[in-house]
Amino acid sequence: MSESNQLLVRRIRNGTVIDHIEAGKALIVLNKLGITGKDGDIITVALNVPSNKIFKKDIIKVENKFLEQDDTNKLALLSPNATINIIKEYRLIEKRNIGLPDVIVDIFKCPNLRCISNSEENIHSNIRVIDKKDIILKCSYCSRIIKINDLVS
Amino acid sequence: MSLNHFYKKDIVSINDFSRDDLNRIFKYTDNFKLLDHSIKGELGKGRTLGYLFYEPSTRTRMSFESAMASLGGSSIGIVDSKISSIEKGESLADTIRIMDMYSDVIVLRHPFDGSSKFAAELAENPIINAGSGSEEHPTQAMLDLYTIFKEKGNIDGLVIGIVGDLKYGRTVYSLLYGLAKYDVNVYLISPPSLAIRKESVYEIEKNLKLKEYNYLYDDVLKKLDILYVTRIQKERFPDIQEYEKVKGTYKVDSSVLEKSKIDISIMHPLPRVDEIDYRIDETKNAIYFKQARYGKELRATLLTLILNENPFNEE
């Protein structure tokens, strides 16, 4: 990492660094992970950071928050090449590469408003990943094909 | 394992059935038709079909009731949600659980896509999807394919045109999923506003040769072995003038027959309104009433297979 980038990514004591987020997606990621900053912890967001690996990337650092598996699943859909670094006492204790799960349960709603999973019945949404390369999803209830943009928008 | 692998099986989507399964169901339907009435009357004796129709139905419900009666069984159910606990706000889940206690097989029609899949997760007894929103109507597609098989002797190699409301017509999607298991060419003819939903045919486009048109062109007509007509629903058009403009375009009358192959078969899931001229009824090309008759026989066969472990005494 170049010296100028080091300024952007101030070390954190405890928390999560989400690196290699597709450029321009950091704010969507924050929103979908429910990271609002209301709890007072420091959040650092860097957009369009030069990167050797993906030309430009976004970075998010969240102090005192450790991402759960559900969060990882969300991130896999939003920015599948992102990496998650868990930091404790300034040390990297876990580096997670994100992989798309086979099924995403109860995280995103099916975008088809006429799907039974969007009715008043007590149903957990269930969305299968049928193509991990192009990220094609399918609602297990109404069988509609869902593109990633349908979920994010 | 049971010899009959349809025993206690849900019929939620035609995608749950392979080409071999469908061909086997057609063979069983042929066998069923040859059975004596007294033998048929034993196949569902003492069994109850429960039906829940949250949307109007004539043929589907009556054909299931009639099919169950021919097996010696009985039918109970709800056809008007306004006179049941559904009107009081009872959930589909609770209604299914209760019906599950009172019946051996449940036939469900519901306005939400995926409703039968949800019901099948809750019920211990098999669920038959009789229409789930604009998603699927699998037994209609099975009887459509059976009709094609009986009338043409084969399904592979045929050129099939599907005309009308392709966007909201659930029968169209189940039929396309079924046709994708065979080697056929399909022409889809509809106004642009009622064109097929791409997100619902993504997975079959690799197997099925689909071509889309906005009009019933002469060049298309003369290639077709089957013309499957569906009703263009007036209520789908925001502008009534737009409806008036397109509705006649897809009408099947004697001029359409003149431009078609001499042995073209005209199919329709019914009810029709005015999309097929009544004079077509008298021609040998009209097979939509036969289709309805095949429907009862195929549904009776499905019920037989679902309710009995080895109904045709296979070894």
Radius of gyration of chain A, in Å, reads 17 Å
CATH class of the largest domain in chain B: Alpha Beta
Estimate the strand proportion of chain B: 5-15%
Kindly report the average pLDDT value of chain A. 87
Question: First CA to last CA of chain B: what distance?
Answer: 13 Å
Count of runs of 4 or more consecutive helical residues of chain A:
4
Annotation, overall tally of beta strands of chain B: 9
SSE topology string of chain A? HEHEEHEEEEEEH
Helix content of chain B: 25-40%
Poorly predicted parts of chain B: none
Spans of chain A of at least 5 consecutive residues whose pLDDT stays below 50 are none
How would you name the CATH homologous superfamily of the largest domain in chain B? Aspartate/ornithine carbamoyltransferase
Described by strand count, sense and barrel closure, the largest sheet of chain A is:
5 strands, antiparallel
N/C terminus separation of chain A = 33 Å
Would you summarize the structure shown here?
The complex is a heterodimer of chains A (about 150) and B (about 325). With about 150 residues, chain A is α+β, with helices and mostly antiparallel strands.
Structure commentary:
The complex is a heterodimer of chains A (153) and B (315). Chain A is of the alpha+beta class. In chain A, 18% of the residues lie in helices and 36% in strands. Chain A is built from four helices and nine strands. In chain A, the strands form two sheets. Chain A has a five-stranded antiparallel beta sheet with strand order 2-3-1-4-5, with helices on one face. A four-stranded antiparallel beta sheet of chain A has the order 6-7-8-9. In chain A, a hairpin with a 3-residue loop joins strand 2 and strand 3. The longest helix of chain A is centred in the middle third of the chain and has 10 residues. The model of chain A has no long low-confidence stretch (mean pLDDT 87). Helix content of chain B is 37%, strand content 14%. A five-stranded parallel beta sheet of chain B has the order 7-6-5-8-9, covered by helices on one side. A four-stranded parallel beta sheet of chain B has the order 2-1-3-4, sandwiched between helices. The model of chain B has no long low-confidence stretch (mean pLDDT 93). The chains are: A alpha+beta (153), B alpha/beta (315). The interface between A and B is medium-sized, with 21 and 24 residues.
